[in-house]
Each structure stands twice: as C-alpha cells, then as structure tokens.
Amino acid sequence: MIAIIDYDAGNTRSVVKAVEYLGFECELTRNHDFIRKADKLILPGVGSFGDAIEKLKTYGLFDLIREEVKAGKPILGICLGLQLFFESSDESEGVEGLCLLKGKIKKIPPKEGFKIPHMGWNSISINKDKNLYKGIKDLSYVYFVHSYYLECEDKDAVAATTEYCTHIEASVEQDNIYACQFHPEKSGDVGLKILKNYCEV
Predict the structure, then answer these.
(1) Low-confidence spans in the chain with pLDDT less than 70
(2) Rg for the chain (alpha carbons), in Å?
(3) What pLDDT is attached to residue 143?
(4) Phi, psi of 43 (to 5 degrees)
(5) Helices (H) and strands (E) in the chain, counts
(6) Residue 95's pLDDT is what?
(7) Which domains does the chain have, with CATH numbers?
(8) pLDDT (tens digit, 9 = 90+) per residue, 60-106?
(9) DSSP-derived secondary structure for 45-85
(10) pLDDT digits (tens, 9 = 90+) for 84-97
(11) Distance from C-alpha of 92 to C-alpha of 143, rounded to nearest angstrom
(12) Is pTM, for the whole model, over 0.85?
C-alpha cells in the first residue's frame, strides 16, 4: 500500500488517479498509523515552500516523514515535494525544509525569451544508473510547472537534468529517497512509467 501524503497541497488527486490507473493500491491520507504501515510514501504538491512546511508541522507530518524515511521507507517527492526534501528555499527565507538531502532551492533567474514560471514540456538528460528511469529513453519529454529549482549538494544523487534559463537538476535518487521536479502524473506514458518504476522499487 502506498500512502500519498495529504497536507492540503494542490495536485494530489491527479497523483492518486495515476497510481490507481497503474494498478497499485494507494490512499490520500494524513493518518499517522496508516502512513507508518504503508510500504511506500509519495509527497506531491503545488504551492509555497513556507506554507507547505507549516502545514506539515500543523498535521504532525514533518517529524513523521523524517522518521519513516530515516527508518528506510521509500518516498517519492513530486514538484513542491522534491523541494521540501531539501534544506531551504529562496521562496521562504528562514524556513527549514525536511533536510532529507543537502541542497537549496533557488529562484529560476530571468532570461530574455523565457517565461517564469517554467510551464510546459522539456526533455531531460537521464542518469542511466537510477531506478526511476529504467526503460526511459534519454531526452524524453516531461511536464514542468515551477518557478524555483534545485541545487543539490551531492551531484551523485542527481538522476536527471534539464535546461531552462539555467541548468536545472530535475530529479534526484539517493538510497530510499526519490524525487522529480516535473509532474510524472501529467507527463503521459513516460511519466506513468516513472511512477510505475517507483511503485515497484
């Protein structure tokens, strides 16, 4: 069973529908007992870094997620979920993230001819050694919606990158921690395959 963590963030229902479509049991929940019993976790989300951390703490999920991940339970972060895994964000100065991985979330710099937020399809360069991308062709297209991007301290954890105004680390994978800045649930067959790879880890 997969627990999709409910902390009042946007875009959770489409993740539930995608996981169910793939044939895996899941539940959108903030129930602590259910989260502890689940085989895997997914932290989706669209919204503000600071507001999201506040909501996680309000529902008692901040420490629970850290405990479960440190105990070895797999977790997948999607979009804002990826950003929350790291230490801090330019979006919310002074707010500490989950600190599951080392790195910072930075604002995408302006560049002539490019719109921010970055919204649309971009190809990703894939690190072939990563589980999330088994069976996925390099330079496959996935769907992004974001104004902030990851700068990961451990470059070995970076699973995929893209280019938009700057070099963007679009996905990470380290031990039991997986994350995508893009939305696999909105990325067609490629995205569904990435989700399936995670659900089968």
Answers:
(1) none
(2) 15
(3) 98
(4) -115, 95
(5) 6, 13
(6) 98
(7) 2-199 (3.40.50.880)
(8) 999 999 999 999 999 999 999 999 999 999 999 999 999 999 999 99
(9) --S-HHHHHHHHHHTTHHHHHHHHHHTT--EEEETHHHHHT
(10) 999 999 999 999 99
(11) 24
(12) yes
Integer CA distances (angstroms), 125 to 36, 43, 60, 163, in order: 34, 23, 37, 9
Q: Which long-range contacts (CB under 8 A, 24 or more apart) does 92-99 make?
A: 92/48, 92/49, 92/50, 92/51, 92/53, 95/49, 95/50, 95/53, 96/53, 97/49, 97/53, 98/53, 98/56, 98/62, 98/65, 98/66, 99/66
Helix axes 188-199, 12-21, angle to 10 degrees: 80
**Residue 192: Cβ within 10 Å count:** 16
Q: Give CA–CA dist 198/17, Å, rounded.
A: 15
Phi, psi of 86, rounded to the nearest 5 degrees: -100, -175
Tokens 């569904």 appear where?
Answer: 192
Q: Annotated active-site positions, please?
A: 79, 183, 185
Chain mean position to CA 199: 14
Express as a percent the part of the chain with pLDDT over 90: 97
Would you state the structure tokens that stand for residue 131, as one six-digit string? 């589980």
Q: How far is CA 25 from CA 34, 90, 103, 161, 169, in A?
A: 13, 36, 32, 30, 30
pLDDT of residue 20: 98
Task: Say how many CA atoms lie within 13 Å of 84 toward its Cβ.
Answer: 31
Q: What is the DSSP letter of 129?
A: T
- The 148-152 sheet, strands edge to edge: 88-89, 103-107, 148-152
Q: List phi, psi (to 5°) of 18.
A: -65, -45
